[in-house]
Design a protein that fits this description.
The protein has 247 residues and is mainly α. The protein has a domain of 75 residues. 32% of the residues lie in helices and 0% in strands. The longest helix has 24 residues. The protein is flat and about 115 Å long.
Length: 247
């Protein structure tokens, strides 16, 4: 008497064996690859906690630095780097805090500062940026800027952050017009530039103060008839104010 299994066509038996193997295989692989303590406390290895605890502590935290380096701290707290951790530039300091003969990194070349200050369009508006290939390429950053309290040569002016616009404006007939003449800028813009934006002209009369035919401005300034000259638009919709090309 044949077993029911034997009564099945051979190709069906083969297919059944392969299917059974594919069903069982993941369980076999899981038993081999997944650690026995996985899932004990959560969706991770329980022994990973002990491994992390056993890892050597490398970072000391900025307060440890502040306990010894009073002069640097005073300078740093007065500058724009006050919220930048010391170890971002100087590297892990735990070993140095235990033995001051172990020296920290002291970046003196041009490779470190551009990590934060190289021009990148996605950086926050107002964040100081440079194109390192053209910005004093033969000098180290720290030869001009104190890294603990970096100050631009134009730290009180718009050019300190808006370098690209300033470079464009320097080529235009508006070069001698102060930014504040056209932009009302709250003091908080310097520290929170994305929250407190400078204003810009919202009507034609603003530019007309200099460019209207009846304006009491220098005779060499280009004039327009305000009533008929593209009256449906605000001036800066056609003329880029930092480089107004029209005569």
């Amino acid at each position: 008497m044949k077993l029911p299994w034997k009564k099945l066509p051979e190709q069906i038996r083969r297919l059944a064996v392969v299917s059974l193997f594919l069903v069982v295989l993941p369980f076999i692989v899981r038993s081999i690859l997944v650690p026995s303590d996985f899932g004990k406390y959560g969706h991770y290895r329980a022994s990973a906690v002990d491994e992390i605890i056993a890892m050597e502590i490398k970072y000391a935290g900025h307060q440890v630095c502040y306990d010894c380096h009073d002069e640097e701290v005073e300078s740093k707290q007065a500058g724009v780097h006050k919220n930048v951790s010391c170890e971002i530039c100087h590297g892990p300091a735990a070993a140095h805090s235990e033995d001051d003969e172990i020296e920290l990194i002291a970046p003196r070349d041009r490779d470190s500062c551009p990590l934060c200050h190289e021009y990148l369009s996605s950086r926050p508006t107002g964040f100081p940026q440079i194109v390192s290939d053209s910005h004093e390429p033969m000098k180290a950053c720290i030869s001009c800027h104190d890294p603990h309290n970096p100050k631009s040569e134009k730290s009180t002016e718009c050019e300190a952050c808006h370098t690209e616009i300033a470079n464009t404006k320097s080529l235009s007939k508006h070069v001698n017009i102060a930014c504040k003449e056209c932009h009302e800028t709250p003091d908080a813009h310097k520290t929170q530039p994305r929250m407190f934006l400078p204003g810009k002209p919202v009507n034609r009369e603003f530019c007309g103060r200099c460019h209207a035919e009846t304006a009491p401005s220098d005779k060499d300034i280009p004039r327009i008839e305000m009533e008929t000259h593209e009256e449906a638009y605000v001036c800066w919709q056609c003329h880029y104010p930092h480089l107004p090309e029209a005569e």
